[in-house]
């Protein structure tokens, strides 16, 4: 074994914090058990681990954790930290030298194999560790090794993993490790760059690294390199130096490399700029402790085309705030391995809490990770996972501490991840195209698993996963469906969920559009999409006159979809794939759906489509322009619809996370829209004949109004016009 200066014990950490729980760190040093015994503490209890090599990073982290103020004796500890026998990432402290002597603390075999898991099982079952959780320091070339699922199936294992993937990271349980710092992180050049103002930087954004064999990096170069203020070049390109770009860019780019994590991460955070992480798969380091979004800008890979435009649009105050926070995070958490170990210790010392739920929630909701699912049902490991299905699933997992979210043991409802056999699906994880029958059969077998006993299993359809299944495949699950029809939908049991949102739904233009008067919109009604159905190719396409009504095919270059949405009083929605339902609701106008009786609007029951949109039959489509003119003339009615559309957009449609939160609430109260009534006694009403509006005073002494034809007891059709208090004789 080698002893280096960086392995000396650390006296203290940067942050003086209390410890919610203590952990005990098993020693790797010879003689820890007796003067003549050369085995570490773990190896005495699991002898097979003695064969394993231990890398320098894993040992440095172990020692750092052992020096933490939260480290205690074995008797008082709730967590036992096991040395990094399965940590296989040879890039520290000498980056690029592989598993050379400089990066290896103890030579031996690579133990990223099932035998190591058996040894971990021996440690878990050892009487010395009874009831304690075991924290494993881990990093491997593949996140899909079969043994990993076996670890995740046991709640007593905690993974401290370098470069974890979103689909198996357990937020609040596991820890995403930071890559070891390079000398650049604390060097004089970095310090000088931190002291310089952002305005002095020459480049807007930059990246220099290996481009070949990496689709995202190649795409970034082709889309955005302009040789002026956005530089994306290969590491062999001599036109720009690596440090020149790193310290002269407002936004240093972090792009995934051969593995999910990259050692450029810490250099970018400590560069004095604002780090930009591009990933659809990775959990950023220490995400639960210091969320990346609080000090950097996060993009998904599919957002690459708009990346530079969105960076340019960030205002000076936002840039200054992110930059200041990045400096703080670098100095407190990433700059040295001592600080990194202190931060890992801080996160590890936090006791997992039962996630509190509001009384109104009524049930605990848990989104089962891919790895948890595959540990219970191994045959699913071979199946392809579509990108759309994974994005939808991860939106629930990102809610973490949401009001209705719970740990698996405390949950009543469990959402299963989506698998697919569809040939046209873009996969997030490649694999075999399993058939619907295979996947549904696997889900049926999960019903009998001990950890899911008595829980309602929730499946998602329409995200590139299942095709439509018949009635015989519905029970005993509940379903979240995109574009369902009444034939395969059970009111009060299943939910119709909105399609994936686009950037338009949460754009500044959408917010501004709601503030503009409807009468001032350029068009009365518009639609742009595929004109290949009998309805679109017939009565609706005949509406087009280019003046009041614009109905054109998606290939028509004369009209921009966004322009039509923001400049139309009414946006037509034709149910089905590509309907642009979300955009129509969030456009600042009023959505008008042309649909038959089988259509189930998104979140219908929780919201009522009639409260924020117009529903037209196919027969009514022929006279839609005169009808819409009459609606527009009824200012009170159209304003009510528009305000409710704005509310539905902001509370249920704008982003995947907002949609997920709305789905949780709707799953608990699927008929809220029908049951939500004004719960006060009606004291007095007045009818305004000129405007055809009822004014109503309720027992809460607040004045409401509603269009006469819609003045029923549904609260969603009334709007308050005066906070009062009003007495009955005053109105």
TrEMBL record:
<comment type="similarity">
    <text>Belongs to the glycosyltransferase 47 family.</text>
</comment>
<dbReference type="GO" id="GO:0016757">
    <property type="term" value="F:glycosyltransferase activity"/>
</dbReference>
<feature type="domain" description="Exostosin GT47">
    <location>
        <begin position="170"/>
        <end position="314"/>
    </location>
</feature>
<protein>
    <recommendedName>
        <fullName>Exostosin GT47 domain-containing protein</fullName>
    </recommendedName>
</protein>
<dbReference type="Pfam" id="PF03016">
    <property type="entry name" value="Exostosin_GT47"/>
</dbReference>
<dbReference type="InterPro" id="IPR004263">
    <property type="entry name" value="Exostosin"/>
</dbReference>
<dbReference type="InterPro" id="IPR040911">
    <property type="entry name" value="Exostosin_GT47"/>
</dbReference>
